[in-house]
Amino acid sequence: MDPRRGKATRTASKAGAAAPKAQGMKGTGTEPSEPPAALGAARPKAQMCGRVGAPGSGRKKRAPGSPERPPVRARNACAKKAPLGSEDAVEGLAVPAGKLAPPAAPGPPLPRTGSCRERGARAPREQRTLPEPTEVSGLDLGLDLRLGLGPLVPASRLRQRPGAWKPRTVLEKLKLRRQEISVAAEIVNRVVDHLLRRLQSCESEFQGVSRLCTGSYYERVKISAPNEFDIMFKLEVPRIQLEEYCNSGAYYFVKFKRNPKGNPLIQFVEDEILSASKMLFKFRKIIKEEIKNIQGIDVIMEKKKRGSPAVTLLIRKPKEISVDIILALESKSSWPASTQEGLPISQWLGTKVKTNLRRQPFYLVPKHAKEGNGFQEETWRLSFSHIEKDLLKSHGHSKTCCETDGIKCCRKDCLKLMKYLLEQLKVKFRHRKELEKFCSYHVKTAFFHVCTLDPQDSQWDTRDLELCFDKCVTYFLECLKTEQLKHYFIPGFNLFSRDQIDKINKEFLSQQIAYERKNGFPVFYEF
């Protein structure tokens, strides 16, 4: 590669949405250096409790004279039909090679990114002044402006830079896993059905337990390894009252308003509080004994992870699969007061949909709250995974969005790519600890907030997949930079507070995402 060409190369992040400055990263296309020495320093002490406010946002307008957005793919391109029942079927059409329309730019054409002038002269670096703002029809490019990060770069320009990536190619790669996922799901269902029959027997304290179909498999956005599954067992509990733990908004002690003698859960009550640790211990014990009786499948239980609500099973034969089983208490009471300002979907899905969703039950899982250097083992955490499934199922502002005869959007594709980005980075740095506490729920929460900011289906046009994905990356980077990621249902609970994830870890992830964004996401093709 001509060294002059490398020096003249400009990235999409310089021309468009600005991400937080990554420490240890150079302006060249090399991987960021190792994290600073601060990584080895002592981490800040975890806070006992308390709420953290929501990040503010500014709003600016788009500059006029901007070139019209070209289609990211040819309109007549066709994608192969996904088989029925596959959870990773991709909405939208594939991009045929070589048929991308160039952008129509007013005035003299700008030199191509990374190009040199004739006779080998290098293009001088010029200071450009943005024109006055104007309205933009179609896709709203205002998310990054609202965050104060500058305008996003049109998808067409992103494709011009060296190492430009093709999101549809990545999604096709993910779609190839669906057959493998279906085979694994069949094995998991056999194990789960066997355990449910045992738990529902008259000898069990969990007689009323049933399966709650939530999670990425049922949301049809599963992209993680096809040998990993999350299963939730729900158990309805009558007439409970919640006592909020340390003003967290998310963690609660559970009490029964009455303690009838016939209640099988009465044995788990201590000082009027339903003990999460005792209940989880018994739940694990029954499952550990019962997996020995499953015919034709070799299953073992992994050691309990500190603070985790999951019972993790490892299926070794006929296929190696990891299954996390989580017990959830179902309450049909009104949602707790901490959720009053949550679920901000009025402009996105409508007030009627919001009202109907809030009439559904809520769930409590035995996830322990952090308390100093340890955990408060009797607390339960709110869970709204069933509502999240409904949001992704009916995700369009229009009722017919992504239906057979409806307009297609790229919301789910963006979520898949965001989840895959984090997953690949966790694989790449699996021997380090900086990314251990990050999970797909952080990505999903940020995605829901972007859907709230950009509620119209036209803002998620399938032709603008690359640009829409960049919107999501921009928002997530800003959350890492400001250490603010509000829980979508509990706005007073900050998922990125320092008692949840250390600042140095957020800086590390921000550096890695900024590097991937600058270089065309090479991590998508590494593993």
UniProtKB/TrEMBL annotation:
Residues 9-25 have a biased composition (Low complexity). Its EC number is 2.7.7.86. One of its GO terms (cellular component) is nucleus. Residues 217-393 form the Mab-21-like nucleotidyltransferase domain. Residues 115-129 have a biased composition (Basic and acidic residues). It is found in: Cell membrane; Chromosome; Cytoplasm, Cytosol; Nucleus. One of its GO terms (molecular function) is protein homodimerization activity. Keywords: Acetylation, ADP-ribosylation, Antiviral defense, ATP-binding, Cell membrane, Chromosome, Cytoplasm, DNA damage, DNA repair, DNA-binding, GTP-binding, Immunity, Innate immunity, Isopeptide bond, Lipid-binding, Lipoprotein, Magnesium, Membrane, Metal-binding, Methylation, Nucleotide-binding, Nucleotidyltransferase, Nucleus, Palmitate, Phosphoprotein, Transferase, Ubl conjugation, Zinc. InterPro entries: Mab-21-like_nuc_Trfase, Mab-21_HhH/H2TH-like, MAB21L/cGLR. The keyword Transferase applies. Belongs to the mab-21 family. Its main location: membrane. It catalyses: GTP + ATP = pppGp(2'-5')A + diphosphate; pppGp(2'-5')A = 2',3'-cGAMP + diphosphate; GTP + ATP = 2',3'-cGAMP + 2 diphosphate. Residues 410-514 form the Mab-21-like HhH/H2TH-like domain. Pfam families: Mab-21 (PF03281), Mab-21_C (PF20266). This is Cyclic GMP-AMP synthase. It is a peripheral membrane protein. Residues 1-85, 99-137 are annotated as: Disordered. GO terms for biological process: cellular response to exogenous dsRNA; cGAS/STING signaling pathway; defense response to virus; DNA repair; innate immune response; negative regulation of double-strand break repair via homologous recombination; paracrine signaling; positive regulation of defense response to virus by host. It comes from Enhydra lutris kenyoni. It is an enzyme of class 2 (transferase). Its cofactor is Mn(2+); Zn(2+); Mg(2+).
